[in-house]
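DM from R.C. (forwarded with permission)

"hey, sorry to bug you on a friday — could you get me a structure for this? deadline for the figure draft is monday and I only need the backbone to look sensible"
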Amino acid sequence: MRKAPSVYDVFMFTHTKDHDKKTFLDDKAKKVHVNLEPFGEEVDENKLFYIVVGGHDHKGRIYGLGSYGRSIFPRNYSNACTTPDTNYEKHHIETKIQKLKEAIEQQRIDLDEVINTVNDTRNMIN
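My reply, with the result:
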């Protein structure tokens, strides 16, 4: 018997062009993916997905899942997710900080190369 797909798998299948899981159909779908990606498989994907998409809307729907969402997340599911898990937030923030540090370091390296190129060019002219 096959395991039911996670809500994230359903979302990626239904919100990417030709189900390629790379080319998103709209900006909101891409944003959901970007917010979920740093967590990998170390967390409860369903709970995290629910938090990232904002839970139920005013009509009781879950973004990106259509009627499938109601079978996975009953209306009272939000009670389990009303207080964000600080471990999720902490990990997400730490991951973003690390990526920013890496980007800054790469920019410093690139800037040093540009400065060296400019100085070499000046020296050749003089």
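R.C.: lifesaver. The chain has six helices and no strands.
me: no worries. Residues 58 and 75 are 11 Å apart (CA to CA).
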